[in-house]
């Protein structure tokens, strides 16, 4: 009901107010205009071959002493500037209309700049959020991204196979070590027959330590997924 209400309100707002870029505020522009899209900052090099995060030393602090789960993770940009603002508008301010532009950014990155291939993927899955948070927000931003990307890539999407248990704290509030503990065992696969033997592309909006996508990948692999690959809008630090 909350999602239907949000959709109706957005439709009415479009009739009253002319479209404008939700990042720079320019009117008669797409919700995330081309000028802003051109300012998205790439993930700095050198970065880890496995998790895709910038290397601050000879070893990756995200991957050090952590069990192998996903094959690799990459992000379309750095969590800063225009991309950070667009994600905030999309995630926290109810602007679901940004999903096509942000998914288009992901797709363009996959097709033109990514140094690894996602061509062998069988199924696209979003990182789930807890049902209570979804009811409060009205949607799962990663699912909206995954649905749009599924259409762009022609790869089937699946939204119900994985559930998330409630976390004690939001990841953004925690330190690196606390994030690792906070999401341990946070995911369970409720439809293993859907993902068994499949190569999964896991979609998330922002990854900082990769703790969330790591735990979700472990749950998928333990339930029989063949391989898991990760693609995010942005990597934070």
What report would you give on this structure?
- This protein is of the alpha/beta class and 237 residues long.
- The chain has one domain: 3-Layer(aba) Sandwich (Rossmann fold), CATH 3.40.50.
- The chain contains nine helices and six strands.
- The protein has helices spanning 2-16, 34-37, 81-92, 99-113, 131-137, 141-153, 176-182, 192-195, 211-222, and strands at residues 73-78, 123-126, 162-164, 187-189, 199-207, 227-235.
- It has a four-stranded parallel sheet. The chain has a two-stranded antiparallel ribbon with strand order 3-4.
- The termini are far apart.
Give the helix/strand class: alpha/beta
Give the biggest sheet.
Answer: 4 strands, parallel
The strand line-up of the biggest sheet is: 1-6-5-2
The count of DSSP E runs of length 2 or more, i.e. the number of strands, is: 6
CA-based shape? globular
Any idea what the radius of gyration is? 17 Å
Q: How many structural domains are formed by the residues?
A: 1
- Mean pLDDT across the residues is 89
